[in-house]
Amino acid sequence: MAGNIYNVLFLCTGNSARSIMAEAVMNRLGRPNFEAYSAGSHPTGTINPFAIEQLRRIKLPVEGLRSKSWEEFAAPGAPPLHFVFTVCDRAAAETCPVWPGQPMTAHWGVEDPALVEGSDDKKRQAFKNAITTLCRRIELFLSLPLDKLDRLALQKKLADIGKR
User: Fold this and answer.
1) Domain tally, the chain
2) At 142, which helix (H) or strand (E)?
3) Which of 26, 47, 88, 154 is catalytic?
4) Would residue 1 count as lying in a domain?
């Protein structure tokens, strides 16, 4: 895969927070070798305002981000996917569409900050924790020598990242 642009899809159920934040982070940190997307099994159609706030806090662009169905990425004409990461347990347990090209997959579960109740400060902290975890995992992923790992070794490393 050396020399290619790798397409990465982050999946969650609602595609309103974690997967959206992961898409934005990967598109910043992974350029020019990675193009990130996000989608949901049951998209809400909106992005959580606390997710937008966190992205802006770390100076990431939010223009063009939208909540969308994972069906878009299984349809003809969709970008070929190299990696698919689920970032919520519910999406990981669902039957995913068949992705053309057999991308590498892994589960990188992150607690859902949108479920946190209480004050806005408590919610902001939950979103900050989520984006910090996503940034760390994406940085670990980007440090992998993709062109030097065979498929089995890469699959193990991708799974290990989801445990950190």
Assistant:
1) 1
2) helix 120-142
3) 88
4) no
